[in-house]
């Protein structure tokens, strides 16, 4: 077994954590995580960062088995928290910044990020109104991951994206109120439907 995946498994065992919960948090398929364990494969850096956050250990520990040197202060990287994102406006051009959040330098090195203040109840009970989600900007995601999705030029909405051969289904967690919505490949192009980024972290409001 690879050193990284072995450390992950050991920490999970020590803390009594379940594979399912880690995979949901980090956006990893359970079958993929099972393969990593069975074949001793180590995750990519972006997954190591998310896993370290879930396990509440440093990324340095996951990667090297050592805690970070705390004798000096590591400066976090500030990212804007937005209330709205819409089609056609680059993230860095949006002037309505509600707040700022910090991410680790290791995380920042893996892409461009922004925070989004959650509106509505469609993703309850896991993601609630007022929470902040950290989103990595990217135009596509894996099926089953949570994304900020822009439909027909409207404000971005958070939904789980399930891909099929003939289209995609946008799924809310609160299915008792918000039914899954299927869009054909033609609708994806014509409306259009665009992925603004992948949700990589939740910072919940208590």
What are the main properties of this structure?
Umud Fragment, subunit A, 9-stranded mixed beta sheet, 206 residues, alpha+beta, 434 Repressor (Amino-terminal Domain), 28% strand, 28% helix
Describe the structure.
The longest helix is centred in the first third of the chain and has 13 residues, at 3-15. A hairpin with a 5-residue loop joins strand 5 (146-151) and strand 6. The chain has helices spanning 3-15, 19-26, 30-39, 45-55, 59-64, 105-108, 185-190; strands at residues 77-82, 97-103, 113-117, 132-137, 146-151, 157-164, 167-171, 181-184, 193-203. It is globular. It starts with a helix and ends with a strand. The chain has seven helices and nine strands; from the N terminus they run αααααββαββββββαβ. The protein folds into two domains: 3-64, 434 Repressor (Amino-terminal Domain) (Orthogonal Bundle); 77-203, Umud Fragment, subunit A (Ribbon). It is α+β, with helices and mostly antiparallel strands and 206 residues long.
CATH homologous superfamily title of the largest domain: Umud Fragment, subunit A
CATH architecture of the largest domain: Ribbon
Approximate shape: globular
For the biggest sheet, the summary is: 9 strands, mixed
Distance between the termini: 39 Å
Q: Taking all residues together, what is the mean pLDDT?
A: 85
Strand order within the widest sheet? 2-1-3-4-9-5-6-7-8
Tally the helices: what do you get? 7
H/E element string? HHHHHEEHEEEEEEHE
Task: Return Rg in Å.
Answer: 18 Å
CATH topology (fold) name of the largest domain:
Umud Fragment, subunit A
Residue stretches low in confidence (pLDDT < 50, at least 5 long) are 69-73
Number of strands: 9
Number of domains: 2
Helical content (DSSP H or I, runs of 4+): 25-40%
Text of the CATH class of the largest domain: Mainly Beta
How large a portion of the residues is in β-strands, by DSSP E? 25-35%
Structural class: alpha+beta
